[in-house]
Specification:
Layout (H helix, E strand, L loop, with lengths): L1 E5 L9 H14 L5 E8 L12 E6 L10 H15 L10 E5 L5 H12 L4 H11 L2 E4 L5 H10 L6 E8 L12 H10 L2 E2 L2 E2 L2 E2 L9 E7 L2 H10 L6 E9 L7 E3 L11 E8 L4 E2 L5 E7 L2 E7 L6 H5 L7 E8 L5 E10 L3 E4 L11 E2 L6 E2 L6 E2 L5 E4 L9 E3 L19
Parallel strand pairs: 2-11, 12-13, 16-18
Antiparallel strand pairs: 1-3, 1-4, 2-3, 4-5, 6-10, 6-11, 7-10, 8-9, 13-15, 13-17, 14-15, 15-16, 17-18, 18-24, 19-23, 20-21, 21-22
Helix pairs in contact: 1-2, 3-5, 4-5, 6-7
The protein binds adenosine-5'-triphosphate.
């Protein structure tokens, strides 16, 4: 028996993971058995109605227990909890709950894949739920059924875990009290990642949601250790570990070429830098990436901070592989890139063999002449010079932790050795 829940929060509070955590504790106290970890599945980062990280949750209950326990009671507990905790006042909060009794099929996995790569309508999700025989519950517009179905259906060939600590009700919306030095220690001593970025504590959300911190790792044992190291100046209401697709690059599809890429989807794409990167007001950096099929504007936005300085080192003719997606402005947002082949050649006018001064053009296809001694060369070809580049062939460069997308795989997870 699978349960999927999505779209219960708003920018002013709540978090679907918190609702799931409350629910799981309640179900366990009522004697229900939950199979494994609940799942937090991040979906298309460009979905138009997302509150923050476009995540849906799901969990699984072994079926045998329903010989003695009531399925109807289970469903009622879940639906009542959504009714009680979801932020219904927000226009953009349209919860959806899905119950599915059966095996996850290949077409369900394909649906989840599409939910990471395309924009899905409520109608489409509803039709699909009917087709597979899932039971849907829509609150208000019920948009959450899109993510609920995907959260239970998503195939996890790569995965990570996230430990979420939740705040007590009286502290929510106030400044969080997490000891920075202990987070630095935790980062150093455990096999976790994305914890800090200089003085910035990435484990701490900057919204008024009930989450106190979230720590991410490849395995859940590291999370238990991390929890013991982090010191807090406030109580924790509860903890929950989720199995997730965060930091797996699951949102990226290999683009055949630039022309085939679609807006609101994410790709790995190869191309040549066409022009010198330039900065516009607000600090956003752009350049054009091209291939035989066409070109696209690629961007490193202001929040990517020092990453922009690295991107600015690209020069026309560099062959690169970009990882990222195409957002609202139809611009490709870079999450990371790999240098495939640097253009390390510049072409200069020849030096006069007689007086060693740089020669000037003698006119189109008329070669070069020396202004000082009048020496002439008929050949019009400039002379190639190798230049030193500060970027390296074969190397990856990524956005800082503070600007990292939930789904973006950090280099520390890429086994680059
Ligand atoms: P949080 O991560 O803080 O829980 P959120 O960013 O996940 O919030 P939601 O409140 O869940 O935001 O809203 C996202 C909405 O978009 C949900 O209703 C979800 O069903 C829907 N959605 C998810 N993926 C897609 C998609 N590919 N196309 C269209 N809608 C989608």
């Amino acid at each position: 028996m699978y349960v999927g829940i999505d779209d219960t929060d708003s920018p002013d509070g709540m978090c679907t993971t918190y609702l799931c955590n409350v629910l799981l504790k309640k179900l366990k106290s009522e004697g229900y058995i939950i199979d494994g970890f609940p799942r937090l599945i991040r979906l298309n980062p460009f979905a138009p109605h997302k509150t923050r990280g476009n995540g849906g949750v799901s969990f699984k209950l072994p079926k045998e227990q329903f010989k003695t326990k009531s399925l109807d009671v289970l469903k009622k507990i879940i639906l009542d909890e959504v009714e009680e905790l979801a932020m219904f006042d927000c226009d953009n909060t349209n919860p959806g709950v899905v119950f599915y009794d059966g095996e996850i099929t290949e077409e369900m996995e394909n649906y989840a894949y599409r939910t990471l790569h395309e924009i899905i309508s409520i109608k489409e999700a509803e039709d699909f739920a009917n087709h597979i025989g899932a039971e849907i519950h829509k609150f208000k517009k019920g948009r959450g059924i899109i993510g609920s179905l995907a959260a239970m259906s998503c195939k996890l060939t790569d995965y990570t875990y996230e430990l979420l600590a939740y705040r007590t009700p009286e502290n929510r919306g106030t400044k969080r009290h997490i000891d920075y030095d202990s987070v630095v220690r935790m980062d150093r001593e455990t096999d976790t990642f994305e914890n800090i970025d200089g003085k910035y504590m990435a484990i701490e959300p900057n919204t008024p949601c009930p989450v106190l911190y979230g720590i991410r790792a490849n395995d859940y044992h590291s999370l238990e250790k991390a929890r013991e190291i982090v010191k807090l100046g406030e109580p924790v209401e509860s903890y929950c570990i989720f199995l997730t697709n965060q930091h797996t690059d699951m949102h990226l599809a290999r683009a055949e070429n630039i022309a085939n890429m679609k807006q609101y989807s994410s790709y790995i794409v190869d191309g040549i830098v066409k022009d010198k990167p330039y900065t516009i007001e607000g600090g956003h950096l752009f350049f054009t990436l091209m291939d035989d099929s066409g070109e696209i504007e690629a961007a490193a936005y202001e929040p990517t901070k020092n990453f922009r300085k690295i991107v600015a080192k690209l020069r026309p003719g560099d062959k690169i592989r970009l990882y990222g997606g195409i957002g609202k402005e139809n611009t490709y947002n870079i999450e990371k890139f790999k240098v495939l082949k640097l253009n390390d050649v510049i072409y200069k006018n020849p030096v006069c063999p007689k007086c060693n001064k740089t020669m000037t053009s003698a006119g189109k296809n008329k070669g070069f002449k020396c202004k000082h001694c009048d020496y002439k060369i008929r050949n019009s070809n400039k002379i190639p010079h190798k230049i030193k580049r500060s970027l390296e062939n074969g190397k990856f460069y990524e956005t800082p932790v503070s600007a990292r997308r939930h789904l973006a795989k950090p280099l520390v997870r890429m086994n680059l050795e």
